[in-house]
Write a sequence for this structure.
């Protein structure tokens, strides 16, 4: 179960589970630009940690991913990550709550 968010007309998908393909939980990020001539999914910079069942939102030109877990029996992940797509660097974002799993995320327009 990956997370998704839309930023600048692109659909981004974060993490998830591809155990059927022998790869397990993912740190991968892909995006689709529906206005692109090729119409293919493209790779974006990978997150700093693998995440299954995370939540994501886009806000102020940046992408945020929180929660999820690293493995099937593992404790939920407490910290989040932020990506500014043009710079291509993920940055850790400390979360002010206990470990979360099964949460929701949303972004409001300022």
């Amino acid at each position: 179960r990956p997370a998704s968010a839309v930023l600048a007309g692109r659909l981004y998908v974060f993490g998830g589970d591809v155990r059927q393909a022998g790869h397990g939980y993912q740190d991968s990020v892909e995006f689709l630009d529906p206005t692109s001539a090729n119409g293919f999914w493209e790779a974006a910079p990978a997150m700093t940690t693998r995440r299954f069942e995370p939540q994501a939102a886009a806000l102020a030109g940046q992408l945020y991913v929180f929660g999820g877990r690293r493995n099937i029996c593992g404790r939920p992940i407490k910290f989040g990550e932020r990506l500014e797509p043009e710079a291509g660097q993920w940055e850790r974002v400390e979360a002010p709550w206990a470990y979360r799993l099964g949460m929701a995320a949303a972004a409001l327009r300022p």
Observations:
- The chain has no helices and eight strands.
- The two ends are 29 Å apart (CA to CA).
